[in-house]
Amino acid sequence: MAATRPFAPLRNLNAKIAAVPMIATVLVVFIGCTLWTVVYSFTSSRSLPTLDFVGIDQYRRLFTTSRWIVSLRNLAIFGILALSFSLVLGFILAALMDQKIRFENTFRTVFLYPHALSFIVTGLVWQWILTPAYGVQKVVRDLGFETFNFPILTDGRFTIYAIVIASLWQGTGLVMALMLAGLRNIDDEIWKAARVDGIPTWRTYLFIIIPMMRPVFATTLVIIAATIVKVYDLVVAMTNGGPGIASEVPAKYVYDFMFSRGNLGQGLAASTIMLTTVLIILVPWALYEYRPRNRTLGVGK
Amino acid sequence: MSLVNPAGPRGRRPRRIGSPTSIMIYGILIVAAVYYLIPLYVMVMTSLKGMPEIRLGNIFSPPVEVTFQPWATAWNSACTGLYCEGIKVGFFNSMKILVPSVIFSIIIASVNGYALSNWRFKGSELFFTALIFGAFIPYQVMLYPLVIITRELGIFGTLTGVIVIHTIFGMPILTLLFRNYFVSLPPELFKAARVDGAGFWRIFLQIMLPMSLPIFVVAVILQVTGIWNDFLFGVIFAGTKNFPMTVQLNNIVNSTQGVKEYNVNMAATILTGAVPLLVYFFSGKYFVRGIAAGAVKG
Amino acid sequence: MTQLHSVSIKDLSLNFGSVGVLKDLNIDVADGEFLVLLGPSGCGKSTLLNCIAGLLDISEGQIFIKGKNVTWEEPKDRGIGMVFQSYALYPQMTVEKNLSFGLRVAGLPKAEIAKRIAAAAEILQIGPLLHRKPAELSGGQRQRVAIGRALVRDVDVFLFDEPLSNLDAKLRSELRVEIKRLHQKLANTMIYVTHDQIEALTLADRIAVMKGGLIQQLDDPLTIYNRPRNLFVASFIGSPAMNFLKGEIGGNSAGPVFKANGLDISLASYAAQQPLPFGRAAIFGFRPEHIAIGDAPGPTGRSSPATVDLDEPMGADSLVWLKVAGKPISVRVDSGRRYQPGEKVFLTFNPNLASVFDAESEIRI
């Protein structure tokens, strides 16, 4: 009267049913749609997808289009500046917050609230603050500096920096919160040992704490980098790519060519380049995070 | 030889409140706080001024004459280029998108996360890893095929369409959140429940759910702010008549027709930001937990 | 064929991927027996318990409970109750609801549930706690409730997974006594996992010492303590640990002798498992309390001079560390006398209480 041997595919059936949406999402959306895009990026598709393969023509055209080159250059500038400033400023803020200060919660609330706002809201506020006719430039001129120029939104050479300022306002709080969580995870006894050894606080941070937080930095970096590659709404709201094409970014290029200009092939090729960029960031990190380790099996007690 | 000096330091060591270090710390923090608060301040001040005052005055100065007219206009009659029905249309659209998206995405992800933590099966870890990596694929890569799929299913340009899309793209982070939470619960609870004869759904509903309220709060906050703030999916999948508030706002502010009414624009901007801001201010630590969860690896 | 046994494990193996976690285990537990699975962390003892409970699927072999093959049965259908280290009480339910959850799942009538809870509460004296939540209980009370949850299931086999490890030393010894009393009263089969040898020695009818997924020795506590089957069991059991001297087995006119660094110990009175192999490398093990310390030499062939290294008073007795033939050994003595470092003394060995192991196979000779 032993139980019947459970039929393998039906064992744990409920769990498998519960995972159906995940499996479908992975197979259809993440893998299927991505492969579709990569395949069709090698076709001559214009307003409708066709399987007329043209090799790397779309990519060749992409890299001779000045708008795409500008987009890439902007993404590089934006990426490097936003990444380095948000990491450095975020860490400094977190380190200051970690000094057992009073009103910690108030400061945290203030630093983090922009992160609750959408990129659209962020972009519109900063567009308003930086508008030359009414914003910072006018205020400084009204103070008596008649010749003060701050044409950050109207002079194409600077527009991307305006977007950096807005994105730092929106995103540094997040970095601060992640870093603070990392700092709070550091064993208190490290600090006690450093204090007994008479090591100054700044040196402790620089030579002991920051190296210990390498995983936190790596993870934060990947998260921010992945957001940066996708940057779209902020640009749409703040400058809509202008003046001219001065502040175009790849994500906007993709959207415009796919949905407004009816040039699917270009949009798909551009999005494939975006994917490649993400993979270049992601793969080394993944190899590092998931590198083979001496995993101990949780056996016995 | 052991002369104890009775006049030496004794008792509690005095705390130096005004030390240069602490002045510097608070100084930097306050300067940073001002930078963070200025945009909010400017938004509110601008929205309370009349247009003549804006043209003459300074964006940082408080209104001489407070008016709530811009708020009323923004809500009821601001123009998006074609229609002049105000941002309220977008507000209600966003609500219609938000509520079902939050509910569906959380139900699916919580059950999935539970299955992945306590009921692993062959391949479950592989799919989970793929799901997390999928979260890093730029949406732009998957947009067009998804347009085709939703069109084939007849849900492109509908509320259902955008809800499905939000459920799909909310899945990685939410599943990670729930899985990590359920993994962190003592596995012995699960074992005890199985010895007690409870199965998959009973353990989930009667043992796990009552213990998981905090993580559900975190998930709701994460989804409410995330979906409310979405622009891309709304503009593509929702269809013109269902445009969410962010899209409406952008259309109002960046429409090229007519005279720019900056006070109305700022009022509309505040109104659009109000929902996630309120969620944020009332949920403090849960919000932080939610964004930190994104950084905690599986 | 298994009717005589309460729990029978036949050729049980468990692999995680290519890693063998449990290897071909065979254990028969008699009805009403208290079996302790003892071993260091990672030895597979908790894993084995989880296999018996049905919480882990085994790779090979069979499990019988009360003569019924339960290898593929769900945990609830195996006729077991289980008590966990972390208590595993459902935090949102009161004590009463915790106890009744399994019974409600099984659809028992209300009156029967109430009867069983009352009985368990009586035995464990947790009646006043029934309407509290786990968070409002002390560690000892929680563990009582956890035992109660196994009790109300009215089963023949109790499984304990390190139930006392989370408690402080005093509470641990109290609950240990209580579990022993419970076993005497209920007389059902208990399988108990622990890494604490005192728990094992005090509670068990038989102890299974495990290491590396294998059972090293399965015997009653005294045999395990006095006649360990191999070097691992000998070194794992006993605190302070057994002393070991490396040397070889030789012989002289008086019979077999253990030789190490000029030290000769007669093995004439040693109860060997097999004829002593002369000339073979061996390890001579003896417990600190099985050796006498004195100011004059003892009987020839069993005595050796030694130098005191350290004296550790432990209250009731003292542990004296000495150097014998260049090797450190410990001796347990009455705490009446203190020894000074450098003091010369004489030791008297007691070969019939010693253990001799083959140096290569580490098996008892």
From TrEMBL, chain A:
Membrane topology summary: Multi-pass membrane protein
Record bears the keyword Transferase: no
Segments forming domain ABC transmembrane type-1: 72-285
Coiled-coil region: none
Biological process, per Gene Ontology: transmembrane transport
Subcellular location per the Swiss-Prot or TrEMBL entry: Cell membrane
Entry GO CC: plasma membrane
Record keywords, A-Z: Cell membrane, Membrane, Transmembrane, Transmembrane helix, Transport
PROSITE patterns in the record: ABC_TM1 (PS50928), PROKAR_LIPOPROTEIN (PS51257)
InterPro entries per the UniProt record, alphabetical: ABC_transporter_permease, MetI-like, MetI-like_sf
Transmembrane segments: 20-42, 75-97, 109-129, 158-183, 204-229, 268-288
Annotated Pfam families: BPD_transp_1
Family: Belongs to the binding-protein-dependent transport system permease family.
The name this protein goes by in its record: Sugar ABC transporter permease
Species of the source: Phyllobacterium pellucidum
Automatic annotation (TrEMBL), chain B:
Keyword Chaperone: no
Protein origin, superkingdom: Bacteria
GO CC field: plasma membrane
Keyword Transmembrane helix: yes
Record localization: Cell membrane
InterPro entries the record matches: MetI-like, MetI-like_sf
Transmembrane annotation, as ranges: 21-42, 97-115, 127-149, 155-178, 264-282
Keywords attached to this entry: Membrane, Transmembrane, Transmembrane helix, Transport
Pfam families from the UniProt entry: BPD_transp_1
Domain annotation ABC transmembrane type-1: ranges: 91-283
GO biological process: transmembrane transport
Principal subcellular localization: membrane
Membrane topology: Multi-pass membrane protein
Protein family: Belongs to the binding-protein-dependent transport system permease family.
Name this polypeptide is given: Carbohydrate ABC transporter permease
Organism: Phyllobacterium pellucidum
Lineage: Bacteria, Pseudomonadati, Pseudomonadota, Alphaproteobacteria, Hyphomicrobiales
From TrEMBL, chain C:
Record's subcellular location: Cell inner membrane
Keyword Transcription: no
One GO cellular component term: ATP-binding cassette (ABC) transporter complex, substrate-binding subunit-containing
Alphabetized InterPro entries for the sequence: AAA+_ATPase, ABC_transporter-like_ATP-bd, ABC_transporter-like_CS, ABC_transpr_MalK-like, ABC_transpr_MalK/UgpC-like, Mo/tungstate-bd_C_term_dom, NA-bd_OB-fold, P-loop_NTPase
Alphabetized PROSITE patterns for the sequence: ABC_TRANSPORTER_1, ABC_TRANSPORTER_2
Pfam assignment, any one: ABC_tran
GO molecular function: ABC-type transporter activity; ATP binding; ATP hydrolysis activity
Bilayer disposition of the protein: Peripheral membrane protein
Stored CDD domains: ABC_MalK_N (cd03301)
UniProt-listed SUPFAM superfamilies: MOP-like (SSF50331), P-loop containing nucleoside triphosphate hydrolases (SSF52540)
Origin superkingdom: Bacteria
Start and end residues of each ABC transporter domain: 7-237
GO biological process: carbohydrate transport
Keywords: ATP-binding, Nucleotide-binding, Transport
Protein family (similarity comment): Belongs to the ABC transporter superfamily.
Name of the protein in its database record: ABC transporter ATP-binding protein
Organism for this UniProt entry: Phyllobacterium pellucidum
